[in-house]
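Anyone up for a design puzzle?
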């Protein structure tokens, strides 16, 4: 992750229900639980997002990349021909509001949840998530670095 990006995880709501998680996913649960296996999601599930994220070649054959690793992107991690993890990186130096809106709509319509960098389950509201990004340590650090110029 770059200093100009904030990273989220996307997980199915059914997986969180199985773990009885409503607010924060304990780190141990995240490492131990096999997300994305309950719903048997096909590898092409995220192709719905190609209208906002162009499909690209990743540095690793086990990662399906949409967008740019250096900017806004979604990375789908593949294990045994199945989705094992999904991360989203938002580049807050770009005009990311539209992308965030589209991503939230995608999550809502597909019963998905977003987790922040501390594994908190987020309310899928663009204003709240933008405030979260703006209050992050990397956003503040980026502001300090750019104000020194």
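Challenge accepted. My sequence:
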């Amino acid at each position: 992750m770059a200093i100009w990006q904030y990273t989220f995880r996307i997980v199915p709501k059914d997986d969180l229900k199985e773990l009885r998680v409503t607010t924060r996913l304990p780190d141990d649960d995240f490492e131990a639980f096999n997300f994305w296996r309950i719903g048997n999601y096909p590898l092409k599930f995220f192709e719905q997002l190609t209208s906002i994220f162009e499909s690209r070649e990743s540095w690793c054959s086990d990662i399906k990349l949409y967008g740019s690793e250096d900017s806004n992107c979604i990375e789908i991690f593949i294990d045994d021909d199945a989705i094992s993890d999904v991360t989203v990186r938002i580049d807050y130096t770009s005009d990311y509001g539209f992308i965030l809106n589209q991503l939230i709509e995608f999550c809502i319509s597909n019963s998905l949840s977003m987790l922040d960098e501390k594994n908190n389950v987020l309310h899928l509201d663009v204003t709240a998530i933008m405030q979260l990004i703006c209050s992050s340590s990397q956003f503040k650090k980026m502001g300090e670095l750019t104000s020194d110029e």
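A detail worth pointing out: The beta strands are 5-12, 55-56, 63-67, 73-79, 82-91, 112-115.
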